Amino acid sequence: MRPISLICVVLSYVAYTYGGSCTLRRSGEDDGPAFLSAVKACSHVTIPKDTILNISSPLNMTNVKNKHIDLRGTIKFNPDIDFWSTNSFSFPFQNETTFWIFGGTNLLVNGGGAIDGSGQVWYDAFATNASLVRPILLTLFQAENVLVEDIHMMNSPQWFNFVNEGKHVVFQSINISSVSTNANRNKNTDGWNTYRSNDVTIKNSVINNGDDCVAFKPNSTNIFVTELNCNGSHGISVGSLGQFPGVFDVVENVTASHVRLSNVENGARIKAWAGPNVGSGIVRNITFKHFSETNSDNPLIIDQCYMTDPTVCAEFPSNTLIQDVTFTDISGTPSGLEGSVVASLKCSPDARCENIVVNNLKLMAPANEGPATYVCQNVNVTGNAAHFFNNCTTT
Ligand SMILES: *[C@@H]1O[C@H](CO)[C@@H](O)[C@H](O)[C@H]1NC(C)=O
Ligand SMILES: *[C@@H]1O[C@H](CO)[C@@H](O)[C@H](O)[C@H]1NC(C)=O
Ligand SMILES: *[C@@H]1O[C@H](CO)[C@@H](O)[C@H](O)[C@H]1NC(C)=O
Ligand SMILES: *[C@@H]1O[C@H](CO)[C@@H](O)[C@H](O)[C@H]1NC(C)=O
Ligand SMILES: *[C@@H]1O[C@H](CO)[C@@H](O)[C@H](O)[C@H]1NC(C)=O
Ligand SMILES: *[C@@H]1O[C@H](CO)[C@@H](O)[C@H](O)[C@H]1NC(C)=O
Ligand SMILES: *[C@@H]1O[C@H](CO)[C@@H](O)[C@H](O)[C@H]1NC(C)=O
Ligand SMILES: *[C@@H]1O[C@H](CO)[C@@H](O)[C@H](O)[C@H]1NC(C)=O
Ligand SMILES: *[C@@H]1O[C@H](CO)[C@@H](O)[C@H](O)[C@H]1NC(C)=O
Ligand SMILES: *[C@@H]1O[C@H](CO)[C@@H](O)[C@H](O)[C@H]1NC(C)=O
Ligand SMILES: *[C@@H]1O[C@H](CO)[C@@H](O)[C@H](O)[C@H]1NC(C)=O
């Protein structure tokens, strides 16, 4: 299914390359309007190497068809916090905003160039204003048959990529880097978030950021993540899910394999809310395999009492069920931040986690913490590493 959808993207793109071509050059002022017109008018838009487009107005490129953005130079968002605070596009989901929405069918972005969010001014401002609304670098909105490849995305103020209501989307050979040049942290700079999206592949990429490497938010289905190298992040994360009353969240058919993680808060993670006033959902058929982790605070974690006090969780268990989850070949060195604990599978009471399988778990004991320990709660684990989790309270 995956190779076919990729071939479809490539073929439909080839069929339309013979439309108009536009080449953009820097004007000295806001290049946003010229970029927008070019994408409207031409099927092939080139941003030459050595061209740095100055984008000082929001980019609404929704509902376009058969477009190739050949990005050899740089698309740089002007670091004007006051302007973007009132002029970015907003989404109800987590009150997110974005510089750029790109959507429609048969879209290709490649060329070896860069998208630069000018993040430092945002990291600095956020350090003293926690309510500052920071824009996402690129949002694919209602986009179908998309390939984004060979692009360097740098210094996003907020998430790098938001795949919102997308279908058949591939990202490959992407370099993500957000590095703060001072002590102000690059918070919430997730690599990718998928939401209400089906058939998304993220592969062969290098991510150096300050939050989730990839997160599967509500209604992410048939997602494939492979060959990623994530540094300094919060890892590969399902959720958090089941937060909002009246909302039902589904995450189904996710495979994450061959992921290297260094200096991370989490490795492979699933988190769902519990408590008296939350939502519901289902997490089903999730596979994490071949993870190699260095200096990871929580190499393997299920938390079905996310942000919920244990006694409250016991009284109001999560209504987000977790089923058919397999962890295979997770290895590496925990940081010791959680003391001797190297893996934690904590479910709500009443058998709300089902068919949790752990195979070939090879986690070292953290330095100076004594032997490694494993935490489990309300879960029956199977697989050849099940014995690590044999002291659960199954209430
Ligand atoms: C980008 O464009 C804005 C708006 O015209 C302008 O204020 C700013 O100085 C430009 N930035 C650069 C680096 O040219
Ligand atoms: C983007 O432009 C389309 C028209 O092309 C409009 O319908 C849509 O509301 C705009 N989106 C936003 C978020 O402004
Ligand atoms: C979104 O903003 C509204 C109004 O400021 C606030 O009540 C709500 O809690 C916010 N939602 C999230 C998910 O942050
Ligand atoms: C903090 O950011 C918010 C949202 O962007 C803004 O409304 C507010 O004025 C900022 N506060 C300060 C002190 O700059
Ligand atoms: C991504 O990083 C690799 C390794 O540093 C480099 O070879 C490649 O050219 C980079 N790609 C882009 C698009 O910057
Ligand atoms: C990896 O992340 C760590 C911690 O955030 C940082 O100190 C280091 O410079 C990063 N390494 C690379 C190669 O970017
Ligand atoms: C997720 O999909 C289900 C149907 O499968 C729907 O009932 C639910 O409202 C969707 N939730 C979100 C957050 O879109
Ligand atoms: C589980 O999800 C994977 C994709 O991540 C898919 O290939 C597989 O068929 C699914 N299995 C079941 C039983 O649904
Ligand atoms: C998950 O994969 C299975 C097997 O391929 C498929 O039958 C099912 O429809 C998929 N679920 C979703 C939500 O796409
Ligand atoms: C564990 O398995 C036993 C025996 O099948 C069952 O009675 C119990 O409810 C299960 N506990 C959980 C938390 O799934
Ligand atoms: C399980 O509990 C027993 C008794 O408290 C203890 O001796 C044993 O070490 C525990 N096993 C694990 C894997 O934690």
UniProtKB/TrEMBL annotation:
<keyword id="KW-0326">Glycosidase</keyword>
<keyword id="KW-0732">Signal</keyword>
<keyword id="KW-0325">Glycoprotein</keyword>
<keyword id="KW-0119">Carbohydrate metabolism</keyword>
<dbReference type="InterPro" id="IPR012334">
    <property type="entry name" value="Pectin_lyas_fold"/>
</dbReference>
<dbReference type="InterPro" id="IPR000743">
    <property type="entry name" value="Glyco_hydro_28"/>
</dbReference>
<comment type="function">
    <text>Specific in hydrolyzing the terminal glycosidic bond of polygalacturonic acid and oligogalacturonates.</text>
</comment>
<dbReference type="GO" id="GO:0071555">
    <property type="term" value="P:cell wall organization"/>
</dbReference>
<keyword id="KW-0378">Hydrolase</keyword>
<dbReference type="InterPro" id="IPR011050">
    <property type="entry name" value="Pectin_lyase_fold/virulence"/>
</dbReference>
<feature type="signal peptide">
    <location>
        <begin position="1"/>
        <end position="19"/>
    </location>
</feature>
<dbReference type="Pfam" id="PF00295">
    <property type="entry name" value="Glyco_hydro_28"/>
</dbReference>
<keyword id="KW-0964">Secreted</keyword>
<dbReference type="GO" id="GO:0004650">
    <property type="term" value="F:polygalacturonase activity"/>
</dbReference>
<keyword id="KW-0961">Cell wall biogenesis/degradation</keyword>
<keyword id="KW-0624">Polysaccharide degradation</keyword>
<keyword id="KW-1015">Disulfide bond</keyword>
<dbReference type="GO" id="GO:0005576">
    <property type="term" value="C:extracellular region"/>
</dbReference>
<comment type="similarity">
    <text>Belongs to the glycosyl hydrolase 28 family.</text>
</comment>
<protein>
    <recommendedName>
        <fullName>galacturonan 1,4-alpha-galacturonidase</fullName>
        <ecNumber>3.2.1.67</ecNumber>
    </recommendedName>
</protein>
<dbReference type="GO" id="GO:0000272">
    <property type="term" value="P:polysaccharide catabolic process"/>
</dbReference>
<dbReference type="GO" id="GO:0047911">
    <property type="term" value="F:galacturan 1,4-alpha-galacturonidase activity"/>
</dbReference>
<feature type="active site">
    <location>
        <position position="234"/>
    </location>
</feature>
